[in-house]
Request: fold
Amino acid sequence: MRHADRVVLVTGGSGGIGAAIVERYVAEGASVGIVDFNGDAGERLAAEWRAKGHRVHFAAADVADYTNCEQAQREIESALGPVDILINNAGISPKHDGKPAPIHRMDPAEWQRVVGVNLTGAFNFSRLLTGGMIARRYGRIVSMSSVAGKAYLGDIVACHYSATKAALIGFTRHLAGELGPHGITVNAMAPGRIATPLVRTVSDAANNAVVDVTPLRRLGEPSEVADLCCYLTSPDAAFVTGQVVDVAGGWLMT
Reply:
């Protein structure tokens, strides 16, 4: 119960890695706010946890929209209390017939949307929540980067995804320096191929090719990403900040 009495906000928390993160924090005693664009899935997940006696609240929001994020923050903190831990997990990686768009065919609107969700969403909630964390001299932020932010994965993701995931690494390191004097740690995780619905939008051949060059010879599980996330925000990692930790089974070791 390392997170008993803590309030956690997880963006993109209604499915995949996000839902696994919610489950892990609930198991560790936290109250959890879920923010997601998918209102039906988010409310259903929150209701399932409440039915089991846990404090979980869902707020629908487009993380790329600052006003939406403000509304979600107010709703979650009204229901659960001030947020101690922010998990910037929301992310998208559009495909076209299972393949990423090359830059010369990419719709500019698609670029803007990916940047809005993957990068601006992390800024929006960090901007909204760090003031309270500074005042309380405690806070934990973890953002979901990717090995694609550190290496070329052209057969799997497009340039907008790689760019946003690389940007989150710089964002994390800057905030770690800026917020460290206020008792706030900021870290990032860089998952490899994790068995989520998003990963399944890519062909089996592409995923199998990754497995073949991954030392552990398998895809990762969402629960394994969630375990690391909870560690990075726990008392066990109180002296860990500004780090980008791979969760990739040894694939693309950097």
Remarks:
- The longest helix spans residues 108-136.
- The chain has a mean pLDDT of 95.
- The chain has one domain: 7-247.
- The first strand starts at residue 7 and ends at 11.
